[in-house]
Amino acid sequence: MSKFVTIERFIFDNQPEYAKGDLTNLLYDIALAAKIISYKTNRAGLQDILGNAGFINVQGETQQKLDVFADQTIFRICDHPGRLCVMASEEQDDVIHIPDQYAKGRYALVYDPLDGSSNIDVNVSTGTIFGIYRYKEWELRGRREDVLQPPRDLVAAGYILYGSSTMMVYSTGQGVHGFTLDPELGEFLLSHESVRLPEPPAYYSINGGYFDRWQPEVQNYVRWLQGRYNDGAGAAPPLSARYIGSLVADFHRNLLRGGIFMYPGERDKPHGKIRLLYEAGPLAFLVNQAGGYASTGTESILDLTPTDLHQRTPVFIGNRSLVEKAESLLQRRKIQLD
Ligand code: AHG
Ligand code: MN
Ligand code: MN
Fold this sequence. Notes:
alpha+beta, Fructose-1,6-Bisphosphatase, Chain A, domain 1, D-Maltodextrin-Binding Protein, domain 2, 8-stranded mixed β-sheet, 7 helices, 28% helix, binds 2,5-anhydro-1,6-di-O-phosphono-D-glucitol, binds manganese (II) ion
């Protein structure tokens, strides 16, 4: 009989001493928001929550009703308990301040309330991504500076995957742990303790439809992954191609089976599509905790300090051996350009 370890119990038992309070409670809050979003997501086809909300977000993308619902749910759960001093969301132009009537806490929350929105109406997995920073300066807490920090300085990061089951995967710097929601109990129960990227990797994920937009070194790297290009430094392990179109779902599968997810820059989008603050950064923190690595193709994503809330970055994330191979091929272009 597997022991019933709830996320609350696990977080409390495994938090470092210094984080027994607010950080633990903040992770509880996120777990509650996840249950509410999961409830709505699993009934999206039955209630008037499919389709677009009729608004365009700061990304220039049509907001889906579930984007808006998820965004509002996280804000309403997290704005008043006094754990946070500021928030930043994919769906909001600027930082979200804690209303004056509530105490400002020690942490800053960045989040993508619903990742993979294009998949909502076709019943394909979607997710939520979050990262938690500590304030920069106590007396000045609540500013943009509290979220514009390099991912290496995250104190916690994670995601929720609304898939065949709802899972919450997080790390506070002591490994990566996965919890599966038992809908009857309404509890997240420990199902994947201390997750490490397996070797050899099994998958590579990239939107092959954009092949002609990539620089030649990226094209050669994808050919290497496919066993069609050999630079004399050894062949790739046998890999299958999988691309779901929801970063959280592609990342989660690669975390459990080994692999690499890529969203490279393109000719007219040199920084690609994935946002640093609330997509690439938190996942870079997680993959590092699971023994993997996340790169722009030339440098570690963990060391990028955001200057804009919604800035994008090329992403190569997964097993370190595969990501470093991408760097070795892309660096050659950098050397040629330098
Ligand atoms: P979001 O729905 O939060 O905007 O994120 C969508 C992202 C990511 O989830 C996914 O990997 C990528 O967009 C898919 O982009 P393409 O459709 O261009 O492949
Ligand atoms: Mn997203
Ligand atoms: Mn989103």
